[in-house]
Amino acid sequence: MPDKERTIVKGLSFGGVTEDANAGMVDVKNGKIVRIRPLHFDWKYTPEQIRPWKIEARGQTFEPTLRTLLPPYAIAYKNRVYSPNRVMYPLKRVDWNPDGERNPQNRGKSRYVRISWDEATDIIAAEIKRIQKKYGPTAILAQADGHGETKTIHAAHGCCRRLLRLMGGYTWQARNPDSWEGWYWGAKHVWGCEPVGKQRNSTNCLPDIAQHAGMILFWGCDPETTTWGWGGQTVSRLCYWFTELGIKQVYVCPDLNYGAAVHADKWIPILPNTDAALHLAIAYFWITEGLYDKEYIRTHAEGFDKFEEYVLGKEDGIPKTPTWASKITGVPTRIIKALAREWASRTTAISHSNGGPGIRSPYSTEPARLEVCLLGMQGLGKPGAHQLSMIEWGIFGGWNPPNWLIGDDTNPMPGPMVYPSVVEANRGFTEPDMPQQIIPKLLIHEAILNPPLSWYGNTMCRYLVEDQFVQYKYPADGCVEVRMIWTDTPSWMSCWNGGNRMADAFRSPQIEFVLAQHPWIENDCEFADIILPATTKFETEDIQVDVFTAEFRSIFLDGKCVEPRGESKSDYEIVCAIAEKLGMLEEYTGGETEEGLIKKGFDTSGVPQAGLCTWEEFKEKGYYVVPTNPDWKKKDVGMRQFYEDPGNNPLRTPSGKLEYYSARLAEHFPGDNERPPVPHWIEKGESHDERLSGERAKKYPLLIVSNHPRWRVHSQHDDMEWLREIDTCKIVGPDGYAYQTMWIHPSEAAKRGIKHGDVVNVFNDRGGVLCGAYVTERLMPGTVYVDHGARYDPIVPGKLDRGGAINTITPNKPVSKNATGMAVCGFLVDVERVNVDELRERYPEAFNRPYNRVSGLCYERMLYHGD
User: Fold this and answer.
1) C-alpha span between 749 and 237 (Å, rounded)
2) d(C-alpha 276, C-alpha 325), whole Å
3) For residue 63, how many other CB atoms are within 10 A of its CB?
4) Count of CB atoms within 10 A of residue 128's CB?
5) DSSP E strand boundaries for 733-821
6) Cis amide linkage into residue 475, ω under 30° from 0
7) Does the N-terminal peptide bond of residue 64 adopt cis geometry, omega within 30 degrees of 0?
8) To 10 degrees, what angle do helices 333-345 and 275-289 make?
9) Distance CA 537, CA 15 (A)
10) Measured at the alpha carbon of residue 43, what is the angle toward residues 40 and 48, in degrees to the nearest 5?
11) Per the count of CB atoms within 10 A, which of 67, 297, 357, 643 is most buried?
């Protein structure tokens, strides 16, 4: 008899931590997912119980919908659950023998054979013991961070850390602030704003902007794309409302992105990673025309005189005029002047979705610092004048370091009674220990291939600016070099910097064992010696919170929808199985059960503590919607207190003011011409030569922009067949392969004999990436645009990729020599049309692997059949 259809609430954001968003309703029948749809908050609660907020401005109102506004890849996520690329069973690399030849040089090339869970865990336990005994505990590197499915007990990342800590320690891949690099390493030195460098104290900024701003600059921001993975489509509604309110929306970006296409009153195309020059030209215009708030600068800023000297050319003999900037940015001089004049005449806010590609480019500290300098010149904190975040509202807005968590300080919208948290039930990423040895994620390849090394700052985004002056080293004192990698986040190749260099690191004989656990066989999995099949979140019982959806915050029983596919286990269960073989299962779990952890999550969530909901009610209804705080309007607006009284409301800088000259940078890094005390335009330096004015540009004359993907969250969702039909997602080549889309302007295409739909090679001295050409005037000349995160499909590992993984050819070095952030956009490339038939003839093995024309890469391509 057919099962009755049932509905389970699931969180459908993809941040990979405990805090979720995009709560949805999953309809299941006969053991299969039928559909995914938005959660209707009033399914089991009345509007009166949840108290919808209302923003009023200029005689108009903006109110929440009574359902979540799910993005396309949340609604289509069942595509991933049933993907042909799912890992179904434990796999071992066919030519890796732990008792004999390990053949590390073949990682990324050789295929896999199926083994049992018993054999797999026996091998893994023996390897862990061998490596720890021979080298020491820090010889094991835990790659246990990153984006992924958002889960709590069965955490996608980090479950191995507790086990390794109990065994004496490990080396940890320290996640760099990848969404905030320029802010973190640059802007914090101007205005404090811990921990990531974007405006902190954003409370009620959005209602304030709606009431008082005349213009919003969307600087490298796409509110119709980046926000999807972390909070749905509320921001889209807001942008339409801004238009109704008469607020001018100006987009500054190389591409007419999806937000600009529907919301922009004006698009200002700018060459990638040249924003600092535009900032300086605006400052020059304001200074020479007297169009800035001199009294505010006198009372709220330090070091402006040194900044002014640089802008006017007194320091280096080069006035930073609009004409000077026009040659660098590609923005006409008249447009620069018009923008500067309009900004000075209208109350203006700047909007970002964390920062996007411009904030993780070579020398991205400088545009980040300069933006804050410009905001200060026009009275930062006055009504309507803010830096507005369009994503992850509330992140790091809670308590004091190191427990920043979620709170009103970084939420520009009306807030809830409480931000629920189930972090106490998390078994993974939130593990609180700091191990004996760390390596910044962006330096993993260098640590393996070129030790020893040193750097400044541990790079983890929850740390205060003072940590940027601390030098770290690898190997750390008393520690050893890495010999084993245990990854539950195998997307390094497609999302971080210098992917081809990382391919070399994976194949290094220094690494004796690579273990991967993941639901899909993709990206770094291809370099693993053993791959363990992990479940998706649809196959486990869990508890979750939705804290980033703007309408309402909620907590819910994140119940199991379907049975695990194949022999897959959850990430937590995988580590439990390994712990059992090591004789440490009871110590690892602490005797806690899944059911007990779910209740623990609720009991410590803040919801019962506030008297809002009981465990019994929660279990009965399956979810709880936190009501809006009735006093949300009474909370201070943004940085208004600093604006009104800087003496009694200082910033977290040494002077308590905006610092146009950083005495701390001058003291700790004297002579650093890549991040000097006064923010500069950096033409090139010892770390990077990625400008069109340089010698390399003669060979690679295009600058690449690499955005947050429109149809993915980083490397997730690339196998979703419903999305791959869209030509801004994939271009199908003459061989039937769906290539990652690359935008190019008609003028640049014509120079190279490229037509729409052609297969092309995007290349530089670090390698090549095949893409499908999308010829469009939505991108300015001098550039090409490829979304990052496409799945790695090597033709020649470390040299040529078919899948479109553009991060394989990004710079290998950090943002700058003393700013240890990644640089993955605004670098030099060229493009050439390729003949697919010739490539197939040259590389028959790569072009003849099994391939699913609907969903792309498939599990079968990695299996060894004895041929």
Assistant:
1) 36
2) 9
3) 12
4) 24
5) 738-744, 759-764, 767-775, 783-786, 794-796, 800-801
6) yes
7) no
8) 60
9) 13
10) 95
11) 357
Residue in this structure with the two tokens 């409480």, named with its chain if needed: 418
What's CA 355's distance to the chain center, in Å? 10
Question: Could you tell me the sign of the dihedral formed by the alpha carbons of 260, 265, 270, 273, in that order?
Answer: negative
Alpha carbon distance 38, 23 (integer Å): 7
Q: Which two tokens stand for residue 442?
A: 């962006």
Distance CA 826, CA 329 (A): 12
Element (H, E) at 305: helix 304-312
What does the buried/exposed string (b/e) look like for 298-320 if buried means 16 or more CB atoms within 10 Å of the residue's CB?
eebbbbbebbbebbbeeeeeebb
DSSP-based three-state secondary structure for 389: strand
Query: CA-to-CA distance for 564 and 560, rounded, in angstroms?
Result: 9
Beta bridge partners of 819: 816
* Contact of 442 with 823, CB cutoff 8 Å: no
Is there a contact between 657 and 646 (Cβ–Cβ < 8 Å)?
yes
Within its chain, how far is the Cα of 403 from the centroid?
20
If phi > 0 it is left, if psi is from -120 to 50 it is alpha, else beta; for residue 591 that is left
Q: Which residues are CB-contacts of 750 (< 8 A; sequence separation ≥ 6)?
A: none
Q: Which residues contact 388 (CB under 8 A, 6 or more apart)?
A: 199, 202, 205, 206, 209, 216, 349, 350, 351, 352, 412
Q: Phi then psi for 196, rounded to 5 degrees?
A: -110, -5
Inter-residue contact 546 to 21 (CB < 8 Å): yes
Q: Sort strands 23-29 and 32-38 into parallel, antiparallel or unpaired.
A: antiparallel
Whole-angstrom distance, CA of residue 416 vs CA of residue 551: 10
Contact 425, 642 (CB under 8 A): no
- What SS3 string covers 9-41? EEECCCECCCEECCEEEEEEECCEEEEEEECEH
Strand 730-732 to strand 738-744: parallel, antiparallel, or no bridges (unpaired)?
antiparallel
* Average confidence (pLDDT) per 10 residues, the chain, 867 residues: 84 87 95 97 97 98 97 94 96 97 97 98 98 98 91 93 96 92 97 94 96 97 91 95 98 97 98 98 98 98 98 98 98 98 98 86 98 98 97 78 70 95 88 86 98 96 93 98 97 94 98 98 96 98 94 96 97 98 97 96 96 97 97 96 98 98 98 98 97 96 95 93 95 97 98 98 98 98 97 96 98 97 97 97 95 92 86
Nearest to 712 by CA among 6, 4, 14: 14
Q: Is 56 left (phi over 0), alpha (psi -120 to 50) or beta?
A: beta
Taking the alpha carbons at both ends of the chain, their separation in whole angstroms is 45
Distance (Å, rounded) from C-alpha 262 to C-alpha 271?
21
CA dihedral in degrees (740, 741, 745, 751; nearest 10)? Answer: 40
Looking at the chain, how many residues does it have?
A: 867
Give me the phi and psi of 640, to 5 degrees please: -60, -40
Which of 342, 345, 350 minimizes the C-alpha distance to 371? 350
- Here the tokens at position 198 are 């974007």
Q: Which residues pair with 576 in a beta bridge?
A: none
* Radius of gyration in angstroms for the set of CA atoms belonging to the chain, rounded to a whole number: 26
Task: Specify the residue for token string 């729409």.
Answer: 756
DSSP state of 86: B
Three-state DSSP class for 193?
A: coil
Bridge-based pairing state of the strands 800-801 and 767-775: parallel
Phi first, then psi, for residue 18 (nearest 5°) are -85, -30
φ/ψ of residue 467, rounded to 5: -65, -20
